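debug: dumping io for the single-chain case to check the tokenizer round-trip. Nothing else runs in this session.
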Amino acid sequence: RESYNRANTRPDLPDEEQIIARYRTIPLLIIDDLGQEQISGTGWAEDRMFRIIGYRHSHNMTTIFTSNQDLATLAGRLGTAMLWRITEMCAKGDHVRHINGPNLRDSDK
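debug: decoded output
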């Protein structure tokens, strides 16, 4: 949220609408670690994510999502409306890939 506020004091930085427009229209968007932050019910974050994902869904734009959450958990974190759009963007699950393996962030392995 603070990145949006910088535009008020730094006119050389993009404002909120410019940032959202970039993520909505960039040819390939990769959203990494989807579901790591709780956005359902937060209002602000939920609205911004929905504006980006909803636009990309409506315009059939290439988007890659990565997550360590299963779909049921994502539904609880993102909301069912947003998860429905995401899974539809993934050809209703036909392009969902489950990759199993060790946690590479675990320094003990």
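debug: round-trip ok. The CA atoms of residues 22 and 105 lie 30 Å apart.
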